[in-house]
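This section describes the prediction task in plain terms. A model, or a person checking by hand, is given the sequence of a single protein chain and must write out its three-dimensional structure as a string of tokens. No templates, partner chains or ligands are provided. The sample shown here is typical of the held-out split.
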Amino acid sequence: MAKKSTLRGKVVSHNISPKGEIEGAVIKTATGTAQVNFPKHGEASLAIDDDIDVAVELEHDDGDHEVYLLAAANGESGGTVTRFNYARHGEVNGYHLDDGTFVHVKPDGARKYKIKVGDRITAAGDRRPGRDAVVIEAKSVKKLAKR
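The expected answer:
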């Protein structure tokens, strides 16, 4: 895993994906120009002319400028599992909690954790807001004692 650092500067432009979505920003820093790419499923947004102070991870430093990935926010959520989520091929890949959070564990994680609907859990990992739910990319899941 890349080392996290902080990047400070001003957003001067956006990079657009072939799908027409903002996928990153060009930042003017005290030492030059840097590029910040948003995570694959990111809902990140940095407005042009914003002064920023963001956590990043260096991806490349061998091009015209350094390229960073906007670091994911760590998060934790807990609640009761109300239903399973399924991958396209039909395997359980996560849990919907009663607070609306979606805990993504992938099929391997679902087999490992053996969580059932009605179980109370806490999950920690990278947190990102999505259009339809807040998602925790679980690095750990703990089953809580029944009340």
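For orientation: The chain has a mean pLDDT of 83.
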